């Protein structure tokens, strides 16, 4: 059993070191991991993904590494074989769940950064830079979209609109330009 612990520690530690180097260099992004988070409910309403957090390469490597390290430490401390095995499995399981939990926390911090500017259509905005009239040039408006305050280019078909005026967003002229008008 001593050899199993040694191989687990060596292989797991080597893979862990390789994974860390790849993450530092930029070769291991979110697509590198084969994460599995099934959407099935257990009878008592608990989501299965909340139990396993994320079954991934990182969590399996953590289990193997700490299983081997704890097993080797227990063998050196002259524990019985059963005690050694129980401690090694507990250490591996602890590492598995801790890494899974940390990964799920880090994933919850991730932001897609997608902002749908079409959601601003119909809302009011404030002119940041004067908007020339008759679509003769661009100005800028500031508007709240999705809880964020954004400043984008704006044009108007009517008369020019001065800085500080309130406007209504009528639509999108291009992906980054609003069509605005003065409120009636």
Give a structural overview.
- The chain has 184 residues and is an alpha+beta fold.
- The protein folds into two domains: 108 residues; 65 residues, Nucleic acid-binding proteins (OB fold (Dihydrolipoamide Acetyltransferase, E2P), Beta Barrel), CATH 2.40.50.
- It contains four helices and five strands, in the order ααααβββββ.
- It has a five-stranded mixed beta barrel with strand order 1-2-3-5-4.
- A hairpin with a 2-residue loop joins β4 and β5.
- α1 packs across α3 and α3 runs antiparallel to α4.
Helix content: 40-55%
- Helix/strand-derived category reads alpha+beta
**What average pLDDT do the residues reach?**
82
How many E strands?
5
Strand order of the largest sheet: 1-2-3-5-4
Number of domains: 2
Give the H and E element order.
HHHHEEEEE
N-to-C CA distance:
83 Å
Rg, Å, rounded: 28 Å
The fraction of residues assigned to DSSP E strands is 15-25%
Shape: rod-shaped
Query: How many distinct helices?
Result: 4
Low-pLDDT parts are 28-46
Query: How would you characterize the largest beta sheet?
Result: 5 strands, mixed, barrel
